[in-house]
Write a structure and sequence with these properties.
Blueprint lengths: L1 E2 L28 E6 L14 H10 L4 E3 L7 E3 L7 E2 L5 E5 L14 H14 L15 H5 L5 H9 L15 E5 L2 E5 L7 H4 L10 H6 L9 H5 L7 E7 L3 E6 L6 H5 L7 E6 L3 H9 L5 E2 L10 E2 L4 E2 L5 E17 L9 H10 L2 H8 L4 E3 L21 H11 L11 E8 L3 H17 L4 E8 L1 H9 L5 E7 L6 H8 L5 H6 L4 H11 L4 H18 L2 E14 L2 E2 L16 E2 L7
Parallel strand pairs: 2-11, 2-12, 17-18
Antiparallel strand pairs: 1-19, 3-4, 5-6, 6-8, 7-8, 9-10, 10-11, 12-20, 13-14, 15-19, 15-20, 16-20, 21-22
């Protein structure tokens, strides 16, 4: 799920769909589900996608070898595989048997060749802004990434040391086709979370016919796959009208239709529309012109009765709250920018934020303080991150940082904070930090808050153009490694690479934890990592969100699961008797 849009949503320059001129009717046999959101995908390519807006589309069109039991993040189950992997004694090689009689949407058969083409593509493409670090444990992946990525380097990775297909060296490749419906995966070293990674969208299986027709260039994104999809999943991409909407249609030939739907009639099409104004989204839902909407907890009082803990519109709007999201939010600071490359200045920022006021009064209690980058209900969590709002300490650290020397209110230090437009929760947090810092510094620091469209914000992050920003993280795979690496993993860490912070001791501890089978030992290693990062004040960790889902009462079949980027539409159906407009 990665860069989070559920708690981090944004949009600019988009067109708000006009409610239908004629009254909408719903036919259970031909239901177009309408979802209104505030952020669009950055890309539709599994090799590059690393945000939840993109992830929701990928999860409905593509499939992986494994997935999570619907509504249960604790249970991995086979999807395109027939059984869980069989590992060797050294835990560095596994064999996976695949399902048969499955076709991609272009008619290409799914088999072991498709798995190899898809997995090899991730490593060989090596999108520098993507999530391919998860495949860094594949045998030879880092050697390839450290090479010049020549044709010979590509062939050696794909086919083993001799670089020639269909020879005895093939078995030494990271992904070996050991049978028409069997693959053998080899790692350089054991990696405890590896099976869970095979359930994340980077492991999506793409038609090998499409891969051959639209070849990649190493180190670059693929324009065709950015906007086109050829998978085995329950939905087909119909159209992506950028800054307006994404539309999908039901794959009527879907191989797992009966099991996935449980006999219910799923939506025949899905329209995900970009609507930046919260009031507009709510009015559409109340009028029956939308089925589910993104809605910030900062305006929850418009739909939620806090006294009685029920929806204000029980006949129209279903509000589900309190479930675990494993989604976290934090400020990050780019240490390549001089003022942020100063531990005391960063500590001043830590003490300047009014955490409890924000959680209780802005997001209305729908969250808890982050004491670790790892969610509290996940193993490996520890109560480490204990900065509290303390203006006196913040002022002391501002002085000791030396940043204010030579500045005053007439010649202030300039500081910027960015957030994704349309996210009212994040807007409020940025403005609160701005007010606090300016007051504590007696206006010797002047803070400018910027709102940016989701894709624009991600592009600016990739280019290193932001000084400080507020964003979030959701899980790619259900393991603390997926929080520790992005936050503290040096160049391999999504946020860490963009903050410029790196610590060799931390990197060594991360490597040790990734191969440690004992959970207690792993948890101890993560505690050591968090303590080092805490003392360095690398991030301002704000809160872990609790769930807040808003949809029409006629929408049936939804289950919360922090491992899903959004809705899995194949599981939904409509109760038309509840649609009374």
């Amino acid at each position: 799920m990665a860069v989070l849009l559920a708690v981090v949503v944004t949009l600019s320059g988009c067109t708000t769909p006009t409610p239908q001129a004629t009254k909408r009717t719903i036919d259970p046999d031909n239901w177009q589900v309408i979802r209104e959101v505030i952020g669009e995908p950055q890309t539709l390519d599994p090799s590059s996608a690393y945000d939840t807006a993109s992830g929701e589309i990928l999860e409905n069109v593509y499939e992986t070898l494994y997935t999570y039991e619907y509504g249960n993040p604790a249970v991995l189950v086979p999807q395109l595989a027939t059984a869980m992997p069989t590992w060797n004694a050294a835990a560095n090689q596994c064999v996976i048997t695949l399902r048969q009689n499955i076709l991609f949407s272009d008619g290409t058969p799914f088999n072991a060749t498709a798995v190899k083409a898809s997995f090899d593509r991730v490593v060989l493409m090596h999108d520098p802004g993507g999530p391919d670090w998860m495949f860094g444990y594949f045998a030879g992946a880092n050697t390839y990434w450290d090479s010049n990525m020549t044709t010979n380097d590509v062939n050696v990775y794909k086919w083993g040391p001799d670089g020639i297909p269909n020879t005895s060296d093939d078995v030494k490749a990271a992904v070996y086709v050991s049978g028409e419906y069997e693959v053998t995966l080899s790692l350089d070293t054991p990696y405890v979370p590896f099976t869970a990674i095979l359930a994340y969208s980077i492991s999506d299986i793409i038609s090998p016919t499409a891969i051959a027709a639209h070849p990649d260039t190493p180190g670059q994104t693929n324009d065709w796959f950015e906007e086109n999809m050829v998978g085995t999943g329950p939905y087909l991409l119909k159209a992506w009208k950028k800054t307006v909407s994404v539309e999908m249609t039901l794959n009527t030939a879907y191989w797992n239709m009966v099991a996935a739907t449980g006999g219910h009639k799923p939506p025949t099409s899905v329209l995900i529309s970009l609507v930046p104004q919260a009031s507009t989204r709510l009015s559409h839902l109340k009028a029956g012109d939308a089925d589910m909407i993104d809605y910030s907890t900062s305006v929850a009082a418009n739909v939620w009765d806090f006294t009685n803990k029920v929806s204000l519109y029980p006949d129209i709007i279903n509000v589900t709250t309190g479930y675990s999201t494993w989604s976290v939010a934090n400020f990050a600071m780019n240490q390549r920018v001089e003022i942020y490359n100063n531990t005391d200045f960063r500590k001043a920022m830590e003490y300047a934020f009014p955490y409890e006021e924000y959680i209780q009064n802005t997001i209305n209690g729908f969250g808890m303080r982050m004491r670790s980058c790892i969610p509290e209900s996940m193993f490996g969590w520890s109560d480490v991150w204990n900065y509290e709002y303390n203006p006196t300490k913040a002022a002391q650290y501002l002085v000791s940082s030396g940043v204010l020397v030579g500045h005053d209110a007439n010649n202030p230090v300039n500081m910027t904070i960015a957030y994704n437009q349309g996210n009212l929760n994040r807007q409020a947090a940025c403005l609160m930090l701005k007010t606090s810092i300016e007051e504590i510094s007696n206006n010797t620091i002047e803070v400018t808050v910027y709102e940016m469209a989701w894709a624009q914000l991600l592009d600016a992050l990739d280019a290193g153009q932001l000084g400080m920003w507020l964003i979030g993280w959701g899980p790619d795979y259900a393991d603390p490694d997926d929080y520790i690496v992005p936050y503290y993993g040096g160049d391999n860490g999504y946020y860490c690479a963009r903050t410029g912070w790196s610590n060799q001791t931390v990197l060594d501890l991360i490597e040790q934890a990734s191969t440690e089978p004992d959970l207690a030992t792993r948890a101890s290693l993560y505690n050591q990592i968090e303590t080092i990062a805490y003392n360095a004040a690398v991030y301002i960790h704000l809160y872990e969100a609790t769930g807040f889902n808003v949809k029409g009462t006629w929408v049936q079949g939804w289950k919360s699961n922090p491992m899903n980027s959004g809705y899995l539409y194949i599981h939904l159906w409509v109760d038309s008797s509840a649609y009374t407009f």
